[in-house]
Amino acid sequence: MSSRPADPAGWQSQVALFPATRYQGSKRKLLPWILDCLADLPFSTALDAFSGTGAVAYGLKALGKAVTACDQLESNRRVAEALVANDDQVLAPEGAEELLRPRADRDYGSFIADTFEGIYYPADENGQLDVIAGNLAAMPPGPQRALASFALFQACLVKRPFNLFHRRNLSLRTADVERSFGNKTTWERPFAELLPRFAAEAAAAVFAGQRRCRALACDILQAPGSYDLVYLDPPYVPARGEGPDYRAYYHFLEGLCDLAGWPARVDLSTRNRRLRGVRSPWGDARRIRELLVTLYRRHPHAKLVLSYRSDGVPDPDELAADLRAIRGELTVHDAGTYRYALSTNRRSRELLFVAY
Q1: Secondary structure of 282-334 as H, E, C letters
Q2: Which of 49, 80, 130, 257 could link 54 by a cystine bridge, Cβ 3.0 to 4.6 Å?
């Protein structure tokens, strides 16, 4: 058990413990800058509206705030439940190792081995994942299941080229060729080693907040509650093309959260066995500005904080005009040039709009 209290004056040391989550678009490396911009603002309650890895929600908790982390993906909700809403529970190494052990009274089946043969992991690891997913599904909802889910997600991601499930590319891992990217050694590390390791990383990050925090999975336009501050980190939509489809990138993790329902949800017509469903409108360049304004208006009394890239759609001038029209006062912070993982754009600047 961990019960270290949050210390707003020493939030830097706390956020340094937030795990590297290997998730596209994560604000983990930018977190000290974001919190420094917000640390002097008066607010007690906050909504992290596109929580993703939960990094910003975790940082706001370290500032002593009552934080609600919200994301459309259940996998992201579980990460936030483990690292943000959870004040004192940890998953012991033996608990992580227990996920790998088949139980005689449990029928594991072979859904992952049969459905994802040759797509993401070799046959032996698919068989292990059937057991791990079955044991995870048998755990009752709560922090322990969330912590186990976090460890499993991290292990699955670190063993994937690009840390994504966007295409059928097991051959990148198995081909006997020279590589200029990736980490072949890490790809081959066994789940028996990785699960306890990531459970320990989560345990080191758990701390008791000054106020109660929670984690939700829902459409952000339907998120309940009233907040002093709403932090927005919507999907980056480039001037040309659509924004990222996180549901497609991380569909395998979503399936692990719903083992019983996974067979009915998987789209067998796709080469990499994605989940059925429509693409999120937040990646549509034609709609995102309108959606943002709708979201602003759902929180008429909140300070609005928006993370954005200078080359995104809408452009920064349009964003500033909308925020000033709705709030009046606006400050724009500029962190300078920043390059995200897997991005080839070296000229984009990281901006933080604060409207109040």
Answers
A1: HHCCCCHHHHHHHHHHHCCCCEEEEEEECCECCCHHHHHHHHHHHHCCEEEEE
A2: 80
